[in-house]
Every structure is written in C-alpha cells, then in structure tokens.
C-alpha cells in the first residue's frame, strides 16, 4: 500500500527495542459505533486512526450505507471478526486533508470509499485494475494494515485512506443515495459489464429485489437491456414494473410462469444470499447464456451439470470491482441519474435498523446520516 511503505518507528521499552505502530506514533482521534462481541450490538467507541501518510487522504464521513455484510461481521457469522469492530463500507464523505504526494484529490472534494482500502499493487490482479481480487487485499474494516494496525469502517466521523482507493463523487449525485453504490452498485455493475450482459436489446433476469437487485435493474435498464425481475414475492410485481421500470416479472415459485420463460434470457444476475435452487434459473437461459452469482449463501448450492453441457451455459461469480471500474460505475450512475432507494436513519437508530435488516424490512437500503447525527 503506497502510504504504508515506511517501516514503523522503534522505541525502547524496558531496554528492548520494539516497534511502534502508526497509531501509537501519531494517533488520529476518531469516534464511531462498534460491536464489542458476537451479540452484534453497536455502541459508541473512541479509537485511533493511523496517521496520514504522504499518499493518504483524510475525509469527514457524511453518509454510510448498511450492507448485509455489516450484520454478518458484527455477529461474527463468518468466523473472521475481531472486536471492537466498526462496520461500514459504503462511505461518502468530504476531503479535509491530503498528504504531500496526493495527486487526485483536494480539500473539499466529495469522495467515496467502498469495500477495500489496500492491496499489494504488484500482482496480476492489481496490474489489471482488479485490486478486489488481490490475495493481499485489505478490506475496509475488521482487517489489518501492513503495519499491523486495525482497519475501522465508516460508522465513524473520519477516515484515513490511500488516495488510490478513493473515488470522486460527481456533483449531481445525491450523496446519501449514492453511498450504497460503493458496494451494492459496483457488485452488480461489474458482472453486467464483464459477462457482456450490457448490450442494448439483450434480455437479463435479476433474481431478488433487495439492495443489490433494485440497483441491478436500474443499471441494466440504463444500458438498454430488457429486464425481468424474478422473485418469490408476487407483491413486488407492481414495484418492479412501475417504480423500477422492469419490463416483466416472474414469480419463481410459479412453475407455469417459469416454464413459459424457458430459454428466453441472455443472462441472469442472481443476488440472493439464501439457499435456493438454481436449476430453474439455468432453464431460463438461452443457449450459451450466463448465470452470474453475486449473493453468497452460507452453504453450497446444488449445481446441475447436464443442462450446462447440453446448452453450453455458464455459471459464474463476481465480487465487487476494481478502483478504475468503480469510478466508471459512479460516473455512469451520475450520467444516468442512478442512485439507490434508501431510508435515511440517525446513528442511534442503527441497532433497530440491523434488526429490521435481518427481517428484510427495508426498501431498499439503510443509510446512516453520519455527518448530522453521530454525536461524540
């Protein structure tokens, strides 16, 4: 990571030379809300950010979206969490300071930070603008910098981030509703582009009409693609067609509807993170069609091979996007007036929001008004 190239300072303790972390050497006081244990309950926390290096940007956090990953991590449902844990990786803020060698940003700029804040910069993935697939990627919270200090997320007042992992937010985008694009947006934009499902006149299915799915519909429609929403909930039909502009709607549990749509789609973007059958989705694909999974079920899905063979079909995956593509996504969103549908909440409502998120009681993304409601 550019700004961490210098070695930590050393100091003498009890006659022994030991390394001092950046936090110890020049701590930046910060304040946020953190989970302390697997209960996932969040409460106020004072902590330290690392000092600002020559390629770093300091920003005041204004808004932060709540991703389902935040809930998983707060409760340690993936077994990788360390506490205290400050979540948040859908971050929009304003630059308040820049290092001496920062080139892309100035004080006052509106900026965004997503799911990663560091990578090795030298592997094949990094060399091809795919930092999100770097084996040494540093995620925005619950990880370690190369100097051993902890990363903390956007449920906080300030961030210190290498400029490479920050994007410009165009002036015409609403900052609060743009925040979820830093995760949900790039998660669906990237596979539409990579798998060639962005050509006008194509027919793409979107499975699940939640935080990811509703943004996928907006991006695909802006690309000129015919969109069919596939959902278990018949009551989402009007929302999908009239509000989000989808062309058609399938109830996945209705065998008649699904059978009538057999072989009609060039691709399907599957955003569902619960266990569900994928054979019906593969059946929707034309010959050489592509089913792309962006949801992450806790247990393996059953993969039927025969329909893949006889239809030359592909099942693939996708996880976020690199920094160059993330900026392209934000610029595309600004050009086409695409933002997430959000419910703006105060910081002290966050635990209630997490409970509602667990019940999928949100339309479609909670965003915390950090700048106005985080009280130190």
Q: Helical element count?
A: 13
Round the mean pLDDT to the nearest integer and report it. Answer: 92
| Distance between the first and last residues' Cα | 31 Å
Query: What structural class should be given to the helix and strand makeup?
Result: alpha/beta
Describe this entry's structure for a reader:
- The chain has 376 residues and is α/β, with parallel strands linked by helices.
- It is built from 13 helices and 19 strands.
- Strands 5, 6, 7, 10, 11, 18 and 19 form a seven-stranded mixed beta sheet that branches.
- Helix 10 (306-311) links the parallel strand 16 (285-293) and strand 17.
- It is globular and about 60 Å long.
- It starts with 9 loop residues before the first strand and ends with a helix.
- Residues 1-18 and 20-24 have low confidence and may be disordered.
Write the layout of secondary structure elements.
Layout: E1 10-13, E2 16-19, H1 22-25, E3 28-35, E4 42-49, E5 56-65, H2 68-74, E6 91-98, E7 110-113, E8 116-118, H3 124-127, E9 138-139, E10 158-162, E11 167-168, H4 175-178, H5 184-194, E12 203-207, H6 211-222, E13 226-231, H7 237-243, E14 248-251, H8 255-260, E15 265-270, H9 279-284, E16 285-293, H10 306-311, E17 314-317, H11 323-335, E18 342-345, H12 350-358, E19 365-368, H13 370-373
Parallel strand pairs: 12-13, 12-15, 13-14, 15-16, 16-17, 18-19
Antiparallel strand pairs: 1-2, 3-4, 5-6, 5-10, 5-19, 6-7, 7-11, 8-9
Helix pairs in contact: 5-6, 5-11
